[in-house]
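Supplementary notes for students who missed Thursday's class. We covered one full example, reproduced here. Read the sequence, then the structure, then the short commentary at the end.
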Amino acid sequence: MSVVKPSLNTDEYPLSLPRLLSLDLPVVVGSLLLAGAWLVGLPTLLLGYLPIGFGRIVFSGPEVITILAVVLLITLLAGPLIALRVIHFRSILAQGVLLHGQVIRRFVTFAEYRVDYVFQHHYQPFQQRNAIRRQRHIEARRGLEPGSVVVVLVHPYLPERSLLVELYRP
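Structure (token representation):
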């Protein structure tokens, strides 16, 4: 049985930052937490109450301060996490080089889909893992079976930063 290596032509693998961020579980969870916190915190700060349907939930002074403290805490945790993930993905997309790798393992939980793979960069072997939020159409791809030869986008100076292209392509 012969192994067919995919082409390393960069035009064949269109990856975009919005696509990467939409599949990244920490970014999705952090964004939802941040949006939810501010949807509760902003009306509470401006109005002193939370309008719900035709009614409202009125808060006392200490409750408003507690809500704002929680919103601030979530912002201080989720904001830098999202910013770091954007910087991480942007640097790989801007400077990455395409290499061949091989899938060694797949693992599925209720929320995420993980793929472990190996590749060589400057004659040194690297084993990496990419995890995305679950997408059944991605899980069904035959190119992600263990033993498959895949294309990996690797940061040239930090090979620990890599993306399994098949996992993120549309």
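Commentary. The chain has a mean pLDDT of 89. DSSP finds five helices and seven strands in the chain. If anything here is unclear, bring it to office hours.
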